[in-house]
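Morning. Coffee machine broken again, so started the prediction first thing and wrote up yesterday's gels while waiting. Chain of 271 residues, entered below exactly as on the submission form.
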Amino acid sequence: NAEEYDVNLRYPEEYRNSLSDINATVVNGMPLESWGTFNEELIPKNIVRRDQTRVVTISGSISGTRTIGQIAPEVERVVSEFDMQGCRYEIEGQISDQEETFQGLFIAILVATILVYMVMASQFESLLEPFIIIITVPLAVSGAIYMLAITGTSFSALSFIGLIMLVGIIVNNGIVLVDYANQLLDRGKSRKEAIVEAGRTRLRPILMTAATTVLAMIPVAIGAGEGGQLYAPMGRAVIGGLSVGTFLTLFVVPALYLVFGKFRKAQEVSE
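Came back before lunch.
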């Protein structure tokens, strides 16, 4: 028979219930206490090593309605108050996974913003007009954060996805304004007259587009349907960002259009 079996031998329980019983155990004709001094201490059941260092894992679970984002700062604060006696600690599990997810999504927002800017720069054949339009992105992000705050919604991965969606949605308002203003400039109007008429003419399409998107996201934002609460942060981020971003776009984009127009005119004169 080529099979192997692990065999563990130990004394009966009545001979190992106390330290005195263990010390009285006979080994090679002498009690065990004659071979050394034995102390009773707490030791781990298993010794686990990582990177050639002993590690101890303390795990826990979340109960109630609080989220990882709300609990993580408190865990960090409590652990930092411990006397580690030369040891170090690492917080892993869902908390570290969430941090990695947020880093990846933050990079995705930056990449999306850069790609949108590059596409607009190629279409407008200019670097100034796309910069004016891309300013609407932080305006929308501020609105999304405000909406999450007033609704008591924690910042989650789905909130980040809502922000990524905003990058592609909110720039449409600026594109409509700036593109029509440029068309009016080509017809001989002054920059101020062009942006004023563009704002007056394109106000209705901008508001209609924003309103239809906001209304469509309301069922998502209130968490309607089975599993709706999972996607609610995304809907609230889109609604808050689009509402505030659209309102501010109607004031900020025309102002920047005039400011950058003076800058371009001064640059052309100097050349």
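Residues 115 and 121 are 10 Å apart (CA to CA). Going to sketch it on the whiteboard this afternoon.
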